[in-house]
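One chain shown below:
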Amino acid sequence: MSKPEFVYVIYIEASCEKVWDALIDPEMTKDYWGRHRNTSDWSKGAKWQHEDYDDPSNVAIAGTVIESERPHRLVLSWAQPANLANPDKVSRVTFTIEEQFGSTRLTVVHSELDDEMLRGVSAGWPPILSSMKTLLETGASMPMTRRRWKSGK
């Protein structure tokens, strides 16, 4: 039986390069991703972490860069740090960034999910990606994503 996946498509009035940068630039992610940043050198095989912007020792998610084709495709393994060694708890996120009609289409496919992670990403990806879009198009993210999130809020 296959594991569930979450798919989200959003159109952004920005270049593919700017969307790519928004996914990996810590100064941008802190504003639209609940005061967190993504850190890595973003090369294939490199480790990456989603960590608290103000306390990098607080790592929420970690994994490996599976594919990195700037500015069009980024594939990451994704797990809570305590679950990295458990293949049943490691999921995969694929960001596909394509120019379309002068704008950018961002498709996020989060696959190989267990039930707990499916619930979390189903609640998390829509506001995160909506706020990233708002940031890129207006210069300011949505206020709700500039602060740390408590579980379910």
